[in-house]
Design goal:
heterodimer, A: about 10 residues, mainly alpha, B: about 210 residues, two-stranded antiparallel ribbon, 8 helices, about 70% helix, protein transport (chain B), membrane (chain B), transmembrane helix (chain B)
Chain lengths: ~10, ~210
């Protein structure tokens, strides 16, 4: 889950 | 997306644009560390490889592309177009002292031992310390142009706002990424001394000079 979320941040 | 992250992104964008405009309009990159700019280009390159693997939103992809293009444009202006104005005598920080340990750490401490994940981790760690050549250069010359200090303030504010964003996300979404948080805190701490000088000097209309 964390692996998907972080691509959201710049 | 929350307001802190948006403000952080905009602050980051503002910093990048301030620097590009300063170099373009004065036709000079004096006082700017080319090594920090190369490191930032490397940070964006290794982090935004996810442009090819994860589509999040138009905003996300557009910002990533803008950061990438602007950071390469800055490096190009410094090392090619306005190379004659580049202050290489004062930009003596050794990049390998940052890249090698950060690369080693990314291999050892990461979420997942895959190439993309290691590169992402590398970019997070490298970003935390990429400003050191610039701060080192200012400490060598003892001063910074006011426009350069605005650039640094916007760049430092970006990660500070991201920390607030992470606190907010933790309480509202239960999301947290320890690697990003620890590196982001280190990054922000590096700016603290500069923030102090910025508030006590630059905001009062004086040039940023270091106490002797």
């Amino acid at each position: 889950e964390a692996l998907i979320d972080k691509h959201d941040e710049l | 997306m929350n307001i802190f992250r948006l403000l952080g992104d905009l602050s980051h964008l503002l910093a990048i644009i301030i620097l590009l405009l300063k170099i373009w309009r004065t036709r000079s990159c004096a006082g700017v560390s080319g090594k920090s700019q190369i490191l930032f280009a490397l940070v964006f390159t290794t982090r935004y490889l996810d442009l090819f693997t994860n589509f999040i939103s138009m905003y996300n992809s557009a910002m990533k592309l803008i950061y990438l293009v602007c950071s390469y444009a800055t490096v190009f202006l410094m090392y090619f177009k306005f190379k004659a104005t580049y202050d290489s005598n004062h930009d003596t920080f050794r990049m390998e002292f940052l890249v090698v340990p950060v690369g080693g750490l990314a291999f050892l401490v990461n979420h997942d031992f895959t190439p993309l994940e290691i590169l992402w981790t590398f970019s997070i760690y490298l970003e935390a310390v990429a400003i050191l050549p610039q701060l080192f250069m200012i400490s060598k010359t003892g001063e910074a142009e006011t426009i350069t200090s605005h650039y640094l303030f916007a760049l430092g504010s970006y990660r500070a706002l991201y920390i607030v964003n992470w606190v907010f996300r933790f309480y509202t979404e239960g999301f947290f990424d320890l690697i990003a948080i620890v590196a982001g805190c280190v990054q922000t701490i590096l700016y603290c001394d500069f923030f102090y000088l910025y508030i006590t000097k630059v905001l009062k209309g004086k040039q940023l000079t270091l106490p002797a």
